[in-house]
Amino acid sequence: MGDVKISMDDRAGQSSILDDFCYNNNVSKANVYVRLGFLRKVYGILSVQLLATTVIAAFGMFTPAVKLYISQNQWMVMGAFIMSMVLLLALMVKRRETPTNYFLLTAFTFVQAFTVAVVVSFYDQMAVLQAFLLTMGVTGGLTLYTFQSKRDFSTWGAG
């Protein structure tokens, strides 16, 4: 059996995951305005995801009724895990179909936020808050450093 080559014409205009990782088709070689737009989009989506996770996790950690419900219904963690896997597969299949991919990403974010809420409900509130603040500080510091730094990290495999 030899290698089978499939061109874009044979796939009726569909792109594959392999096409997503083609060389010379990345953001680092794009125009500066395209790169800045990409960064704004990624940071915007990530910020909304982190905000939703923080709010839902705080609700699960600081509301006694929710903490009690979570501790009495631990089967929900397995349900969240299964939903995460299903949503990841759906995101892979529908990655280029807007707005479906955004709806799936929103659902995935809420499932993951619920999972985080379950986990933090079993820990001491002060320890969770310290971890949250440390994570925010490190992430913010690295982000600021990245945006103001003149160093080129593309030799480390980013571009």
Describe this entry's structure for a reader:
The protein has 159 residues and is mainly α. The chain has one domain. It is built from six helices and no strands. The longest helix is centred in the N-terminal third of the chain and has 31 residues. It is flat. The relative contact order is 0.10. The model has no long low-confidence stretch (mean pLDDT 83).
Amino- and carboxy-terminal Cα gap: 35 Å
Helical content class = 55-70%
Can you count the beta strands?
0
Globally, the shape reads: flat
Q: Could you describe the largest sheet, including whether it forms a barrel?
A: none
Catalogue the unreliable spans: none
Strand content: under 5%
Mean pLDDT: 83
Count every helix, treating DSSP H or I runs of 4 or more residues as helices: 6
Please give the radius of gyration in angstroms: 20 Å
Can you tell me the number of structural domains? 1
Q: In sequence order, what are the helices and strands, one letter per element? A: HHHHHH
Name the structural class: mainly alpha
Subcellular location: Membrane
GO biological process, one term: negative regulation of apoptotic process
Keywords: Membrane, Transmembrane, Transmembrane helix
Membrane topology: Multi-pass membrane protein
